[in-house]
Every structure is written in structure tokens, then in C-alpha cells.
């Protein structure tokens, strides 16, 4: 049941173009029981990685889930070229596991070239 409910939470919500901050978030049923799901959120409107996390966590926690930020970085999304590059880190949350974020993004954008690097800010 919990896994089916988690499937209702979008794995990816990022801006359609540009370079912006992103966070990798683990979502699980409130109380920490049951399966978890990692999601990627990234937006240019955010001055800080925490802005994205706080907004996302507030929305998801209203649905009865707990959220944990696993780290952050930056995404360069070039929709015309069908390219996404994940890199960098969050000063507040640390570096996300970009390999995990990249896999989630590849599942959402199977026809894109999705790459990552630990270099850069």
C-alpha cells in the first residue's frame, strides 16, 4: 500500500531549461516505516537549496510522509539539445549522490544525455 502511495509522488520536478540548484530528497511514510523513494527537485527561483527543500517537504508532509534531504548540487538542463548535467554541491546540505540523481533523471528523460560530475559549484 505505501509503495503504491509513493508512486503518486513525482520522481522529478525540475525547470525545463537553464542552470539551477537542486536537492535529492528521500520520502517515506510518516514515522519512517515502509519503503522509501528518492526524488529530485530543482528550480531557478531558489536562492538557496533549502528554499527548494522547505517548499517540497511542506507539500509532501501534508500528504502524510516524512522527508529527508540527502544533499544538493546544480543541474544544467538544455531541453533543445536534450542534455542534463548534474554537478556541484550544497553548502547547507552537502553534495548529493549525483549518480543516484542521474539515474532518477534518466528514468524521467530516457531520450536525453544525462551526465554528472563532482566538480564545480
Task: Give an account of the 3D structure.
One of its GO terms (cellular component) is plasma membrane. Keywords: Cytoplasm, Hydrolase, Protein phosphatase. Exhibits phosphohistidine phosphatase activity. InterPro entries: Janus, Janus_sf. GO terms for molecular function: actin filament binding; calcium channel inhibitor activity; enzyme inhibitor activity; protein histidine phosphatase activity; transmembrane transporter binding. The longest helix has 13 residues, at 49-61. Strand 4 and strand 5 form a beta hairpin. This protein starts with a helix and ends in a 5-residue tail after the last strand. With 121 residues, the chain is α/β, with parallel strands linked by helices. A six-stranded mixed β-sheet has the order 1-3-2-4-5-6. It has helices at residues 2-6, 49-61, 98-108, and strands at 12-14, 18-29, 37-43, 65-78, 83-87, 113-116. The protein contains three helices and six strands; from the N terminus they run H-E-E-E-H-E-E-H-E.
Features:
about 120 residues; Janus_sf; 6-stranded mixed beta sheet; globular; about 25% helix; alpha/beta; 14 kDa phosphohistidine phosphatase; protein phosphatase; actin filament binding
Give me the side-by-side strand order of the main sheet.
1-3-2-4-5-6
Q: What's the average pLDDT? A: 94
Distance between the termini: 39 Å
Count of alpha and pi helical runs: 3
Record field, number of beta strands: 6
Question: H/E element string?
Answer: HEEEHEEHE
- Protein structure class: alpha/beta
Helix content: 10-25%
Taking the sheet with the most strands, its summary is: 6 strands, mixed
Integer-rounded radius of gyration: 14 Å
- Low-pLDDT residue spans: none
